[in-house]
Amino acid sequence: MLARALEASGIATTSISLVREHTEKIKPPRALFVPFPFGHAFGRPNDAALQHRVLAAALELLDAPAGPVLRDFPDDAEPGVEPPAPRQASMITPAPTVPTDVAGEVRAMRERHAQWLTKSGGRTVFGLSRVPAERFDDVARFLVRFAAGEDTDMRERPADTPLPAFIRWCADDLKTLYFEAYLATAADAGGDEIAQWFWGETAAGQLLRRVRDRLDASDDPKWKAAAFGVAR
Amino acid sequence: MPRLERLPAANRKTLLSFPTQENATAPFVRPVKPLHACRVAIVTTAGLHRRDDKAYGPGEQTYRVIPAVTPVADIVQSHTSIGFDRVPIMRDINITFPIERLRERAARGEIARAANNYSVMGALRETTKLESETAPEIARRLRDDGTDVALITPT
Fold first, then answer.
1. Which residue on chain A is closest to B103 by alpha carbon?
2. Distance from CA of A98 to the nearest CA of B (A)
3. Would residue B73 count as lying in a domain?
4. What is the pLDDT of residues A3-42, one digit of tens each?
5. Closest Cα in chain B, distance from residue A101 (Å)
6. Structural contact between residues B117 and B65, judged by C-beta atoms closer than 8 angstroms
7. Nearest-CA distance from B132 to chain A in Å?
């Protein structure tokens, strides 16, 4: 849709398609269907050679004399062992004993996350809530109060950000803190392995299940939408 | 994506019920230059933006600029749907936004240069404003940048 609008304005486009069935209907001017899972549009992280092959195949479509063009990327292999879509919390059974001290666990994760930042050269997708990592044991306590049904808030919440949106950002940052902390000592870990650990073995994972439950129990569609983004 | 038949039933259902346009033809302009002379931009639907830029809210039909020289450490993603795996982008931004790959191709002379990039939010169900206002504005800015080709990338 975006590609069509840009092309109609005179810009030549070439697109990566992850859902062939949608692309067949929408008909962007040029699209390369790739057989990779969601989140892996260019194949595998840190595999520059594969990424270049995908990029070259997408750019080659610019040679086509007429369109629409929909071509399949020739490598029909899945990238490694990752499932087509990440497993959701509801598909992961918590371990028989899971820690319950979320704030303490968060403090330990922060140290591992600092190691990740050193290794990644400062690259992180943490930061959507705008609450610094140093304050995340307070964020954990805030989420614990919220999950328990209390009327609660944080002073860091911007006035123009509704409570459910802020909770969603906090949950996203909490996940990022843990997932990137995990990568600090297992740089090649895939999303499925980390999801299994987070939802199965951490106090934060169980907390987010409870946060989801409270949001989902609301009649307000904005709360329900936030629940769908926290855990499902 | 993997073929739909390989997806868990819940994901397949969400995708098949997602509102999509159905078109019979496509607009089509041929680049006027050979690729090695083209300026190439990424226009991504992954909800990426610079760290100090405003995060996207769900369903937001606006755009953000990611200038050509932006360091990869300054790019974040506020499209956080749990329907896709975020670990690849934690490990390597190029998995969705191949900015370093484009810079490498420019250094090798395979494209003229990596131009300013643009982003919009992903998983939009309502796209009227995106089509009527946002996309034409992005196209205008791409033309002002002297960009010849836009690479459209999802997450």
1. A52
2. 23
3. yes
4. 999 999 999 999 999 888 889 999 999 999 998 988 999 9
5. 25
6. yes
7. 8
Facing residue for B85 by CB, picked from A1, A68, A82: A82
Encoding tokens for residue A206? 């169980």
Exposure b/e, A164-190, CB count within 10 A at least 16 = b = bbbbbbbbbbbbbbbbbbbbbeeeeeb
What is the DSSP secondary structure assignment for residue B103, as one 8-state letter? Answer: H
- Per the structure, how many domains does chain B have? 1
* Domain edges within chain A: 2-72, 89-230
pTM: 0.90
What six digits make up the tokens of A18?
């992850």
| CB contacts, 8 Å: A8 with chain B | 27
The domain containing residue B92 runs over which residues? 34-153
Strand partners, B151: A14, B42
- Out of A19, A125, A187, closest to residue B89 by CB: A125
Tell me which H or E stretch contains A144.
Answer: helix A136-147
Q: How many CB atoms lie within 10 A of CB B113?
A: 16
Of B7, B83, B101, the CB nearest to A52: B101
- Residue B77 sits at the chain A interface (C-beta within 8 Å): yes
Give the mean pLDDT of B40-66: 93
Q: At what angle do helices A136-147 and A163-185 cross, to 10 degrees?
A: 130
ipTM: 0.91
